[in-house]
Design brief:
single chain, Tetracycline Repressor, domain 2, 9 helices
């Protein structure tokens, strides 16, 4: 790094975490339109310039909040996948967990419903690549460590499709979680040529 280059932010620093905590709470309370960098700084006990130094602008701050929320959600997905030895059951459980958890997540409700303005929705739709890439990559690595016989390229492809499909159902609220979970699980195992359950659990 040359002297003229700014230092990369410490993504695990207490200051950054405090700013993200404050911003998440304010987003839920006021929506994106009502989010002010000054209020975030005051809630975290730092200067407004510190907020700008960490995130660049309000959009960067909102994106960081959503990405952190997504990382925490993926920690839950890791736990769900680890509870199942069968790929079909694991995928279904992961989709079900996603739909049920997101329905009770106040931050995701702000993003999905457009509370306080719909400016945040692109973080899960047209500009969702950071969220989608992180989700897909995490799931692929976890699943391949658990089922190493799966073809990496094929699994990465179908995981990306499954994540996007699940997110679409999440945004549109189409159908009961169990039905959607079964549909996505069937898509994944059929694409990979993995046997489906024979006990009628579909």
């Amino acid at each position: 790094m040359t002297p003229s280059e700014p230092a990369a932010p410490d993504r695990s620093s207490p200051v950054r975490e405090a700013l993200l905590d404050a911003a998440a709470e304010l987003l839920v309370q006021n929506g994106y339109k009502g989010l002010r960098m000054r209020d975030v700084a005051e809630a975290a006990g730092v200067s407004r310039q510190t907020v700008y130094n960490e995130f660049g602008d309000k959009w960067g701050l909102a994106q960081a909040v959503v990405l952190r929320d997504n990382e925490r959600y993926l920690d839950g997905i890791d736990r769900v996948l680890a509870e199942h030895d069968d790929l079909y059951a694991a995928v279904g459980a992961a989709v079900r967990y996603t739909l049920l958890t997101s329905a009770d997540d106040p931050l995701k409700k702000v993003v999905l419903t457009g509370a306080g303005g719909d400016e945040l929705l692109p973080l899960l739709t047209t500009q969702a690549e950071p969220v989608l890439f992180t989700a897909s990559a995490r799931i692929v690595e976890h699943a391949l460590a658990r089922w190493p016989h799966l073809d990496r390229e094929a699994f990465a492809e179908v995981t990306d499709a499954a994540v996007r499909l699940t997110m679409s159902h999440l945004i549109l609220s189409e159908g009961p979680p169990d039905r959607i979970a079964g549909f996505v699980a069937r898509m994944v195992v059929r694409y990979l040529g993995v046997p489906e359950p024979e006990d009628g659990s579909r």
